[in-house]
TrEMBL record:
Species of the source: Aegilops tauschii subsp. strangulata
Residue ranges occupied by any RSE1/DDB1/CPSF1 C-terminal domain in the UniProt entry: 1-257
Lineage: Eukaryota, Viridiplantae, Streptophyta, Embryophyta, Tracheophyta
InterPro entries: RSE1/DDB1/CFT1 (IPR050358), RSE1/DDB1/CPSF1_C (IPR004871), WD40/YVTN_repeat-like_dom_sf (IPR015943)
Record's keyword terms, sorted: Nucleus
Gene3D superfamilies assigned to the protein according to its UniProt record, in alphabetical order: 1.10.150.910, YVTN repeat-like/Quinoprotein amine dehydrogenase (2.130.10.10)
Name assigned to this protein: RSE1/DDB1/CPSF1 C-terminal domain-containing protein
Length: 288
């Protein structure tokens, strides 16, 4: 493989450096003023060096082995999250003093990854090839080294779409002073052209909307009366488990499509006024 570095001169791309690599380059990330590359089963860090004659070169600084195929990388500060072809998600850290990349933790489940993203310092989201989403958490405060070395699966959900890209951001203008304006969102794209949003809800919002989702399932029947709970269960070749710590925003927003009498029935079951329910669901819609 090769890494090509271009400079923009007078509106044109000029090739200034060509670096040969021992394998295919699957991912490139800017990282602490350096270049982080995923090359076959290795994560490699390159420095941008200036030679005496003024020309530049990419110089290998350090690397990390231990993957089947490192397909996706995301970075935040000194931390690197790697999505592997078969070995799910692993968390690496770059140590400046030692000029080394070390593994901190990994998810020991066998997931064939299609995309990864770091939601924040401790929570990472992954998509895999059975059309599921899942989240893992770093156990920094665990008592033993073994627990600290394990990324704990905290959320699972069947999306039914093959996600191939996550990006931090929003599809709408956010009002910074509104409560919903403070909620972090990640956009995902799929191979079918679907664009969706994953929002990290505060706990009280989540509890309220989970109760609304459970109530709505009784009033809104899926196509062919298929079970919503069954459809959203995390399912791959190895296991099937109920969806957890994920909500179905499309189902919750369908509350606003109900006729007035149905809305009142839902509100009665929730013991919340219709206006309050509508307001909460409309707030959720402002995230996209």
């Amino acid at each position: 493989g090769r890494i090509l570095v271009f400079a923009v001169e007078d509106g044109r791309l000029q090739l200034i450096v060509e670096k040969e690599t021992k394998g295919a380059v699957y991912s490139l990330n800017a990282f602490n003023g350096k270049l982080l590359a995923a090359i076959n089963q290795k994560i490699q860090l390159y420095k941008w060096m200036t030679r005496e004659d003024g020309s530049h070169e990419l110089q290998s600084e350090c690397g990390h082995h231990g993957h089947i195929l490192a397909l996706y990388t995301q970075t935040r500060g000194d931390f690197i999250v790697v999505g592997d072809l078969m070995k799910s998600i692993s968390l690496l850290v770059y140590k400046h003093e030692e000029s080394a990349i070390e593994e901190l933790a990994r998810d020991y489940n066998a997931n064939w990854m299609t995309a990864v993203e770091m939601i924040d310092d401790d929570i990472y989201v992954g998509a895999e090839n059975s059309y599921n989403l899942f989240t893992v958490r770093k156990n920094s405060d665990a008592a033993t080294d073994e627990e600290r070395g394990r990324l704990e699966v905290v959320g699972e959900y069947h999306l039914g779409e093959f996600v191939n890209r996550f990006r931090h951001g929003s599809l709408v203008m956010r009002l910074p002073d509104s409560e919903m304006g403070q909620i972090p969102t990640v956009i995902f794209g799929t191979i079918n052209g679907v664009i969706g949003i994953i929002a990290s809800l505060p706990h009280d919002h989540y509890v309220f909307l989970e109760k609304l989702q459970t109530t709505l399932v009784k009033f809104i029947k899926g196509v062919g009366s298929l079970s919503h709970e069954q459809w959203r269960s995390f399912h791959n070749d190895k296991k099937t488990s109920e969806a957890r710590n994920f909500l179905d925003g499309d189902l919750i927003e369908s509350f606003l499509d109900l006729n007035r009498s149905k809305m009142e029935e839902v509100a009665k079951a929730m013991a919340v006024p219709v206006e309050e329910l509508s307001k909460r669901v409309e707030e959720l819609m402002r995230l996209h």
